Amino acid sequence: MLDFHFERRWWKSGIEYIAGVDEAGRGPLAGPVVAAAVMFPTEVWIHGVNDSKKLSPGRREELFDVILRSALNVRWGIIPHDVIDEVNIYQATMRAMTEAVSQLNPTPQHVLVDGPRFRGMSFPNTAVVDGDAQCFSIAAASIVAKVVRDTIMVEYDKQFPHYGFAQHKGYATPQHLEALRKH
Q1: pTM score of the predicted model
Q2: Which of 14, 139, 140, 152 is 20 to 30 A (C-alpha) from 64?
């Protein structure tokens, strides 16, 4: 159940600035990995925020705008495909997350990160397995990361229309695999 359980643990201990972090783009065959960091004022709730995978593209875009207006700060980090190829997707994801969090102002006092572990961040942090389905600030970050990445893939589609990036966003769909065979 998505709620403030994780944030409240830190708020109750006197920590005010808590950021949620998630990524989009670890599974596709093309495009960047994008991580977002979102920090809300204490107890700010946005109805409908959920794991981005559970929301329609239109609903994600609506919530993206509300998140940007409601949050204390929202930042994202983008690691391009050539860096992913060079360092691997895990390292690229960690870089994107670190980049997003390090841009936040005010500086977060604690970071909640989606996934089983996080390496490389100098901020106090807690990894939350399935965090985008359990933690409000991580779910908000998942929406931001997905919308930013999807927007990039739609732009790629304009440059490379024969791949169909606007439809599949770089994931290994039958359409994308066929385009790869052809082109």
Answers
A1: 0.95
A2: 14
